[in-house]
């Protein structure tokens, strides 16, 4: 089989996107993928030259002149408006243009997967692009409304694989309860099952599902969603997916004890689940980032192609320092290659 063709966006040019990409691409093991960067060549070269002065001699950076690059030309006002360490309308316009073109080229069949460096949602908004995140732009351009945000990480301590899907994502907390419906949860669980089967070869297994309220509502005393509809919803899903053991609705704090042990222990915990369904952003991402911030991968499931991304953001606070950790970006590129290969074989 030919090498997976990956397009890697440089993300917000005021953040650490270019840095983590150039650091990651200096790793020769990534040569198993056919990689193309997409971004503004002039900003990329400026950044490379700056970083060469910043990083210690033990750190290597890929040289842009050795890489395939799709150059996204930017009007001078946008290019000159980018200020390292501060997201603004110019950096938002640039990062949006990179992703927008990457999607078009991928939908046209030129690439098998998109790996995205981080963008700032607020910079997109300042630039007039009103999407909650890259995920929603990817879904809108693919014309799908069935998609999910799944985080994946492999423990360096035990080899155990953490998989956590978010039922809702970039939503104010006070809108979560009204957004959760039986239909939405069925859609997300169905996507998760498909992904476990197609991408991870798990035809059966265990999926743990969190409740919404403290102690999963404590029988209605601490919140009513579980007793009013979520318990019945889960009973129905158990009939639909008899090959999976659906655990739940688990108290949302203690749900993470076994995965924590499976991640940090000396061997995978026998009772850790194959996947976790968290009901809102921070219910899932606080534990994921505590366990795996240096290496977790954000992948969009349900798209007609593979999309991965590091789990971190633009890190404007360290963008001038040259100290960004590229392991999550490297893992995102590796996983994209693996998923493309496994989908081609299925
Ligand atoms: N996939 C994406 O495009 C994501 C984008 N974001 C965006 O990033 C912006 C900043 O968000 P924050 O919540 O501050 O999260 P963040 O991940 O950018 O930063 C959180 C903390 O972690 C540190 N950090 C992040 N990545 C690092 C790395 N690779 N190496 C070393 N240290 C690192 C930062 O310096 C900061 O102290 C927001 O505008 C948000 O929208 C946030 C998460 C994901
Ligand atoms: N917190 C996760 C996140 O912000 C992912 O955003 P995006 O990949 O949709 O841009």
UniProtKB/TrEMBL annotation:
Q: Which residues bind a divalent metal cation?
A: 170, 215, 281
Major place of residence? cytoplasm
The cofactor named in the record is: a divalent metal cation
Q: Does the keyword Metal-binding apply?
A: yes
Q: Which residues bind substrate?
A: 135, 289, 298, 307
Stated EC number for the protein is 1.1.1.262
The record's InterPro entries line, in alphabetical order, gives: PdxA, PdxA_fam
Indicate where this protein resides in the cell. Cytoplasm
Which keywords appear in this protein's UniProt record, sorted alphabetically? Cytoplasm, Metal-binding, NAD, NADP, Oxidoreductase, Pyridoxine biosynthesis
Specify the enzyme's EC class, one word.
Answer: oxidoreductase
* Pfam families noted in UniProt: PdxA
List the catalysed reactions: 4-(phosphooxy)-L-threonine + NAD(+) = 3-amino-2-oxopropyl phosphate + CO2 + NADH
GO MF terms here are:
4-hydroxythreonine-4-phosphate dehydrogenase activity; metal ion binding; NAD binding
What is one GO cellular-component annotation here?
cytoplasm
Question: What pathway does the annotation place this protein in?
Answer: Cofactor biosynthesis; pyridoxine 5'-phosphate biosynthesis; pyridoxine 5'-phosphate from D-erythrose 4-phosphate: step 4/5
Q: How does it assemble?
A: Homodimer.
Family listed: Belongs to the PdxA family. PdxA2 subfamily.
PANTHER family cross-referenced by the UniProt entry: 4-HYDROXYTHREONINE-4-PHOSPHATE DEHYDROGENASE (PTHR30004), D-THREONATE 4-PHOSPHATE DEHYDROGENASE (PTHR30004:SF6)
Role this protein plays: Catalyzes the NAD(P)-dependent oxidation of 4-(phosphooxy)-L-threonine (HTP) into 2-amino-3-oxo-4-(phosphooxy)butyric acid which spontaneously decarboxylates to form 3-amino-2-oxopropyl phosphate (AHAP).
For this entry, the protein name equals 4-hydroxythreonine-4-phosphate dehydrogenase
Please tell me the species this chain comes from.
Chamaesiphon minutus (strain ATCC 27169 / PCC 6605)
State the encoding gene.
pdxA
């Amino acid at each position: 089989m030919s090498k997976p063709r990956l397009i890697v966006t440089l993300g917000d040019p005021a953040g650490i996107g270019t840095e983590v990409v150039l650091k990651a691409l200096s790793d020769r093991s990534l040569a198993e993928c056919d990689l193309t960067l997409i971004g503004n060549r002039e900003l990329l070269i400026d950044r490379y030259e700056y970083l060469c002065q910043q990083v210690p001699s033990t750190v290597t950076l890929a040289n842009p002149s050795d890489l395939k690059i799709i150059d996204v030309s930017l009007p001078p006002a946008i290019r000159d408006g980018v200020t390292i360490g501060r997201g603004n309308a110019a950096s938002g316009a640039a990062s949006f243009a990179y992703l927008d073109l990457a999607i078009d080229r991928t939908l046209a069949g030129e690439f098998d997967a998109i790996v995205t460096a981080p963008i700032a949602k607020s910079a997109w908004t300042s630039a007039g692009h009103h999407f909650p995140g890259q995920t929603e732009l990817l879904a809108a351009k693919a014309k799908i409304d069935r998609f999910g945000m799944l985080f994946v990480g492999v423990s360096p301590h035990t080899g155990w694989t953490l998989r956590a899907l978010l039922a809702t994502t970039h939503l104010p907390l006070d809108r979560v309860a009204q957004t959760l419906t039986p239909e939405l949860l069925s859609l997300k669980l169905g996507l998760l099952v498909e992904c476990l089967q197609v991408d991870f070869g798990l035809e059966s297994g265990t999926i743990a599902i969190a409740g919404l309220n403290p102690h999963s509502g404590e029988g209605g005393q601490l919140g009513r969603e579980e007793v009013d509809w979520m318990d019945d919803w889960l009973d129905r899903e158990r009939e639909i997916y008899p090959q999976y053991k659906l655990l739940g609705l688990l108290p949302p704090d203690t749900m993470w004890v076994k995965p924590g042990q499976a991640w940090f222990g000396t061997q995978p915990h026998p009772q850790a689940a194959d996947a976790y369904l968290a009901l809102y952003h921070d219910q899932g991402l606080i534990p994921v980032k505590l366990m795996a911030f240096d290496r977790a991968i954000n992948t969009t499931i349900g798209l007609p192609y593979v999309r991965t991304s590091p789990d971190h953001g633009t890190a404007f606070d360290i963008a001038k320092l040259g100290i960004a950790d590229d392991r999550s970006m490297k893992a995102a590129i590796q996983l994209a290659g693996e998923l493309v290969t496994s989908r081609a074989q299925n």
